[in-house]
Design a protein that fits this description.
Length: 309
């Protein structure tokens, strides 16, 4: 186990007194059986992934095959990729939300679910560090672009949707919002597991409120909001080109990224993307003041925020 894994595990003990409710065994068996049948047809497309994510998808495959999903948010490799928990910078984000004139709105979005047995944030156990982090990103976007999430967003395309946390948040904002989760086949299954347990309309058909996809298949997706939180910045440059039309057809853009990932300079890439879109969008590349990576590897992180002119 690496040092940052040990550190993450130790920090989780701060929430040892906060428990999640159990989930229905019969429902869990039904959902898990569906997933086991679905996964038999899947393969990992290594061309679209960097080394980090190839290994991650292999671990997801093993997790799903073993049927050990009730506590998937306690898995170290899951937390490493898309579930931040007891970090001090989360308190600073939470305080920003509390000091907002829209606190009552954000407060409702922060209430955590029990699916996956998430670690509750030790300084605000109603929620988790990850949920707070996601809602804070939406606040940054609202403030910078001067938009209203409830009034202005009807359709969302999320590139790299994690386990479905942001999709869940938008289901709380409005049940009229249509949401597309683009991810690998294996991660789509985690989204299905998580969101189905919450009784949301999630599936692999366009008619589903939350539509799970792993390929564009020559379809054009026009959305009000394009989201990519540390996902677009972690795939090969050539693969990113496939999503330019999806990004450039959106009214609003929220992308979080780190300065460098493996051998890619993301600051250069997103500065170039800003130039390409500048005629049609008002764009801000804004430094993330609170998040600087993990304890053992610090670097600069940014928001790419855009609004169509």
């Amino acid at each position: 186990m690496m040092l940052n894994d040990i550190f993450r595990t130790l920090m989780s003990f701060l929430s040892v007194f906060y428990f999640n409710k159990g989930i229905s065994n019969s429902k869990d068996i039904y959902i898990s059986d569906f997933i086991k049948k679905k996964i038999k047809t899947f393969k990992i497309n290594k061309n679209n992934l960097k080394k980090t994510h190839i290994e991650f998808n292999k671990e997801i495959l093993n997790l799903v095959k073993n049927g050990d999903l009730k506590n998937f948010l306690r898995k170290n490799f899951i937390q490493k990729m898309f579930f931040v928990h007891n970090r001090i910078f989360i308190l600073r984000e939470l305080n920003q939300l509390k000091n907002s004139h829209k606190w009552k709105f954000y407060e409702k979005l922060l209430v955590e679910d029990s699916i996956g047995n998430p670690i509750r944030y030790f300084l605000y156990p109603k929620s988790s560090g990850n949920r707070i982090n996601h809602v804070y990103h939406l606040k940054v976007m609202e403030d910078e672009l001067k938009i209203n999430l409830k009034k202005d967003i009807k359709k969302v395309f999320e590139f790299g949707a994690g386990y479905g946390c942001m999709a869940r948040i938008f289901s709380k904002i409005s049940n009229k919002i249509n949401y597309i989760c683009f991810d690998t086949n294996y991660v789509n299954l985690l989204q299905f597991y998580y969101l189905k347990h919450i009784n949301l309309d999630v599936g692999y058909k366009k008619k589903n409120k939350i539509y799970l996809i792993s390929s564009l298949k020559k379809n054009s997706f026009k959305s009000d909001l394009f989201i990519a939180n540390w996902s677009l910045s972690e795939v090969p440059l050539i693969f990113r080109e496939n999503f330019f039309k999806v990004i450039s057809s959106s009214k609003y853009i929220l992308i979080c990224f780190q300065e460098k990932f493996e051998n890619i300079n993301n600051l250069d890439y997103f500065s170039s993307l800003k130039m390409k879109l500048s005629k049609e969008y008002k764009i801000v590349i804004k430094r993330n003041l609170f998040y600087r990576g993990n304890f053992f590897f610090k670097q600069k992180h940014y928001f790419f925020l855009a609004k169509k002119l």
